[in-house]
Design a protein that fits this description.
This protein has twelve helices and 14 strands. It has two domains: about 40-240, no CATH class; about 250-400, Nutrient germinant receptor protein C, domain 3 (GMP Synthetase, Chain A, domain 3, 2-Layer Sandwich), CATH 3.30.300.210. A hairpin with a 2-residue loop joins strand 1 (about 40-55) and strand 2 (about 55-65). It is of the alpha/beta class.
């Protein structure tokens, strides 16, 4: 019995030894991180610009310079970076955007990494050439971020990326913050592709210009700023619009934010400036007797930020008159935007097609090939409802002498 116990113990120890040896043998088969790329070997792209000239695509990248990130050292010129010394730009061109990217890598000593690119700027010339090639590449190339913000450049995209903003570390950071503030349309690369390929086949991009530098300052020491909208039909740029037309376009596209609207009230001297809050445009499509119709309802709450009339905002009658005046103003903006889209450009910027497809799938399937002919003939009906919910810190008009003192 004793010998049998010893044999059993030896067999158990041998089995334990084999199990302990198994992980060691498996580790010999692991390849390890032989193909790793260290962070110090990467050239990190913060923003990308696309231009088109002389039948060639010009690709500009703004790079982060980590060795200068905390030094606070100054710089001048587009190649030396921003005032904080943390960025530089490089440009390459090619017959296609893929060729331009390949040539751009040859101008940088590190492996170009696009995974942190948060901003894409497309010039008008590139937009006229067509976005389809760029969209295909940006969504196919593994490193590009689908959620990078897309802007339109009023001039060339390269000049915007070369700017050295005094307030931010880079123009890429300025543009990202503008996107977060919703100072126009906030469109990502993925949304751009979906809009161009969707049933409406159109997209609205925020247009950027460059502020002139202050006297005596470096020519690059300036900021990009939002001015107007760039309109695209199918995948090509067709027009730039400015205020007041942009207000109606953004309102119907549910992209109107950070705006103050001066409103004149009939029969009252002066005016009132209102900041919209929670504005929403809803679309209700109808097809009856072969006639296509879109009912548009706009609702908005408002905050009064300026009152130059002699009336007090605590007066319910005056507030009602003010709300009606504001409703009339919003309806006028909407009518202007619809006339531009339906009668002038004949382009569905407000996604009527999406609503008709959702509510009438059978009729849409039968008529989608003729949508460009149907859209200009769609009857529209606009209704607006507004309410003043905030009057600021005071309901009384300020700066007017009291009756007792006059």
């Amino acid at each position: 019995m004793k010998m049998k116990g010893c044999h059993a113990m030896r067999r158990g120890l041998a089995q334990v030894g084999r199990l302990a040896l198994l992980p060691v043998l498996c580790s010999l088969l692991l390849s390890g991180c032989w193909d790793r790329i260290e962070v110090n070997d990467l050239a990190i792209v913060l923003a990308t610009g696309i231009d088109y000239a002389d039948n060639k695509v010009q690709l500009t990248a703004q790079f982060f310079i980590p060795r200068k990130a905390g030094t606070g050292s100054g710089g001048s010129g587009s190649l030396e970076g921003s005032p904080s010394g943390v960025t530089m730009t490089r440009t390459a061109e090619g017959i296609t955007i893929a060729e331009a990217l390949n040539r751009l890598q040859r101008k940088v000593s590190r492996n170009v990494f696009w995974g942190h690119c948060e901003v894409l700027v497309i010039s008008k010339a590139a937009g006229k050439h067509g976005l389809r090639e760029f969209i295909d590449f940006l969504l196919r190339y593994p490193q590009f971020r689908e959620h990078a913000y897309v802007f339109s450049a009023g001039e060339d995209a390269k000049s915007l990326l070369e700017l050295l903003p005094p307030l931010e570390r880079s123009s890429a950071e300025s543009l990202r913050e503008m996107g977060n503030l919703k100072l126009g349309t906030r469109i990502t690369v993925l949304e751009l592709a979906q809009s161009i390929e969707g049933p409406s086949r159109s997209v609205i991009l925020t247009q950027l210009l460059r502020l002139p530098p202050e006297p005596g300052q470096n020519q690059y020491a300036s900021d990009p700023f939002v001015r107007g909208l760039s309109l695209y039909k199918n995948d090509r740029y067709i027009k730039t619009i400015d205020e007041p037309l942009t207000i109606g376009v953004l309102m119907l596209a549910n992209e109107l934010n950070n705006i103050i609207m001066p409103t004149e009230v009939e029969d009252y001297k002066g005016g009132v400036s209102i900041r919209p809050i929670n504005m929403r445009a809803t679309m209700n499509p109808q097809i009856t007797g072969g006639k296509w119709k879109m009912k548009i309802h706009i609702e908005s709450e408002g905050e009064v930020v300026l009152n130059t009339t002699d009336m007090t905002l605590s007066d319910a009658k005056f507030r009602k008159v003010l709300e009606k005046a504001w409703e009339k103003k919003l309806e006028g903006y909407a009518q202007m935007a619809l006339h531009m889209a339906q009668k002038q450009l004949k382009t569905d910027f407000f996604k009527f097609a999406v609503e008709f497809r959702r509510h009438y799938p059978k009729q849409w399937l039968q008529n989608k090939a003729n949508w460009e002919q149907i859209f200009p003939q769609v009857e529209t009906e606009i209704s607006v409802r507004t309410v003043i919910v905030r009057t600021g810190k005071s309901t009384e008009p300020q700066g007017i002498p009291d009756q007792e003192d006059s």
